[in-house]
User: Fold this.
Amino acid sequence: MKQYEHPLVEAFDLTAVLHALSDPYRLSVVQKLAEAQPQPCGPLQAGRPKSSVSHHFMVLRRAGVVRTEVVGALHMNSLRDTELEQRFPGLLSAVLKAAQSEQECRAG
Amino acid sequence: MKQYEHPLVEAFDLTAVLHALSDPYRLSVVQKLAEAQPQPCGPLQAGRPKSSVSHHFMVLRRAGVVRTEVVGALHMNSLRDTELEQRFPGLLSAVLKAAQSEQECRAG
Assistant:
């Protein structure tokens, strides 16, 4: 059974986390997981080809932003929000607030 | 006399800001400016070739992170921290705190 590798919280790298969050699709995945988690990849795919989605999830996993666990036939994704908060306090919540306020600006 | 272009605060894009901060050299420039500003490019160059430094400052300016103003023969750089705080509250300070804590982890 496929298992994914995830960095330890001590190995989180700030610029890798910022890079993972700096792509609009990856940021949208993080926002969706912040609203409801865990989620399988399917509803997060947003019409993208599977190879592109796999790549983006790999970037999120390697940075320590997302954890993917195999549960039966599903690959369930969740944010590593507690560990990110432990390592970089306030960072993820500031990014999520900024993303929401940006969307409200654009919608408004 | 050369003038640099800077986006209006309303045009700041979150993923562009995160991308600008996701490079170790650019993040180090932001940290140095957070300690003392404005500063000319020279002391921020850190032994890099001028073309590389120019590119990185362009990325920082286009994202709205840094403002460069021509003062006589000097190109003086400062953080747009007030405008970033206005647009994305808490983001820059969370990134600066995270960068500092990461450096302390590595040093300790």
